[in-house]
Amino acid sequence: MIRVLFICTGNTCRSPMAESILRSKAGHEIEVKSAGIYAGDGSPASANTAQVLQENGIECTHTSSYLTKEHVGWATCILTMTNQHKQAILQSFPESKDKVFTIKEYVNSSGDVSDPFGGPVDIYRETYAELEPLIDQVLAKLK
For the chain, how big is the Rg over CA atoms in Å? Predict the structure, then answer.
C-alpha cells in the first residue's frame, strides 16, 4: 500500500487541501495523511480551505497534527509544500532522505506552493488551482 504524507507549516491550509484532493482522486488505492512542521494537534482546516474544497465537491474532515516520528515511519512518500519544510524534515528525521520531496520536485517542477494562510478566500482558490494539477501528476507517478 502506498502511503502519502503531505507537510506544510501549520497543517490547516495547504497540506490538508492536498490530502483531501488526493484522497478524492485516489479512492482506496492510496492512504493519505497530512501534518505540519509547527502544527498544533486538533485544529480543523481553516474555514477558507474547507470552503474551497467544498466548492470543488471535496469533503474535508481534517484535524491538524504535529509531524512525528510515527508519521515519518508510516509514510512511503513525504511531499512538502516548500523546500524549507523538506529541509526541516531532513534535519529532524535524516533517515527519511530517500522519501522526502517537495511536491513540485516530485513531479519534476520547481518552486514552492504559495501559502494562503490568513488571506481572503480567493487566495485559497489560487492555492487550490496550483495544487490540483500537481496532485494529478503525483497520482500518475504513484500509479
Answer: 14
| CA angle, 18 then 14 then 47, to 5° | 105
Task: Of 28, 27, 13, give the one whose Cα is nearest residue 62.
Answer: 13
| pLDDT over 90 (residue 28) | no
33 backbone dihedrals φ, ψ, rounded to 5°: -140, 170
Place of cell 509531524: 67
The per-residue pLDDT for range 45-73, each reduced to its tens digit, is: 999 999 999 999 999 999 999 999 999 99
| Sign of the C-alpha dihedral computed for residues 45, 47, 49 and 50 taken in this order | positive
Residue whose grid cell is 469533503: 59
Q: Which three cell numbers stand for residue 45?
A: 482546516
Q: Annotated catalytic residue: which of 14, 23, 60, 77?
A: 14
Give me the catalytic one of 3, 112, 115, 136. 115
Please state, in angstroms and rounded to a whole number, the distance separating the CA atoms of residues 119 and 102.
23
Cell of 67: 509531524
**Is-catalytic flag, 115?**
yes
How many Cβ atoms sit within 10 Å of the Cβ of residue 2?
13
Contact 82, 112 (CB under 8 A): yes
